[in-house]
Amino acid sequence: NIEVDVDPNANNRSEIYWNRYRTDSLSDRDKQTYAFMDSIGKDVNFDRLAKTFETVMTGKIPVKFIDFDIDKFLRYNQYEGLYLGLGLHTNDRLSRRFKIGGFWGYSFNDMTSKYGGDISAILHRNSELEVKAGYFYDVTESGGVSFFDEKTSYLRGEGFRNFLIRRMNMTERTFVALQFIGLRHFKWNIALKSDYKQSYPDYYYGQSVDGVAQLKNDFRFTELSVGFRFAFREKFLRTKRIKISLGTKYPVVRFQYTHGFEGLLYGEFQYNRFDVKIKESFYVKYLGMTSIELRAGYIDGDLPYCNLYNGNGSYRVFTIYATNSFATMRMNEFLSNRYVALYFSHNFGQLLVRSRFFSPEIVLATNIAFGNLNNPSQHHNVSFQTMEKGYYESGLILHGLLDLKLYKVGAGVFYRYGPYGYDTPADNFAYKVSIVFPIESVKRQ
Questions:
Q1: Considering only CA atoms, which of 406, 299, 390, 312 is closest in space to residue 357?
Q2: Which percentage of the chain shows pLDDT scores above 90?
């Protein structure tokens, strides 16, 4: 539901247009009031603040009829090292219905150029009916999970995990997708894509072809996916450039079904895949806010590592805290073709003792996961575990030990226990630095 909808032409309307909607003409006092408010706006530079806010929310910097994509300027992870690049798209100043864009970049650790482009057409604004087609040659995480409406951002706690990713696949993808709002509170995505993935060094997948065992390290996938995002009674504010969620009191559900085709567009594997994520946050009177995220996935066929589930670990002995990940789980420690994971945290809110630069918040967290893998012997030159017995960890985080207003810095510690705990207690600990941006609370759903 659109709670506030700003007409895209609102800034261009004449005085004659506005007079038609005024119940009375402006008095001298009204005119002086508007003049006074305009002078305040110029002194504080509200226009620049509004544009800065829109840039943060959209991830784009507008320059005339071009939007520069911030996420294509720079990134870092263990596989690529430092990545520098440029990405741009046309915006509404060129056309409100059609957009075209692309990107190019270079990463210094794998010494590889990445590039791509896409074109989209908005067929109906109110239902957000959009068709999009594109191509890219870029990296994708081995065993990662993504949903159509989610964009990784380093202003969100989950995005900090990207720094730690070390196993990725060079992926050449061609795709076409259709998005729209259909049924109340649902946003849908239907996509067809063709992937060619090259494995990371030394990994091989074993499979029998015409009775002969073969080892391969490059793969072709053809997938048709249907997914939705459901947020009951979610409210939005929509302007010319952005649509901002004002939140909902109910759980946000994401679901995605994917079918892999063997023989279609050179696809080599046939399978069905189901992914779901349910996220909910709610306040408990006098006790603070509880956040729960449930994730699950199931694949009914045998697939290479790159299209399975990697466990979602984010361990370093000392590193930045990545929310909704396993703080003590080593990167790529587990591998599954079916799993379920629960991330639970409770924030007790700000303590009574606080000052200008000190506003601590106590957060308790517990994460649990179960998983399994069919035919682990098919995966060669790679070490991993499966987590049938259940993976458990708990932690304590103190947000806001240093409040710098633009962001807050804190600290935390997690401990791993249960069937997959280490015999040496020190190996079960992970120490974290927490960084929280105020804008994260706006974008958390």
A1: 406
A2: 59
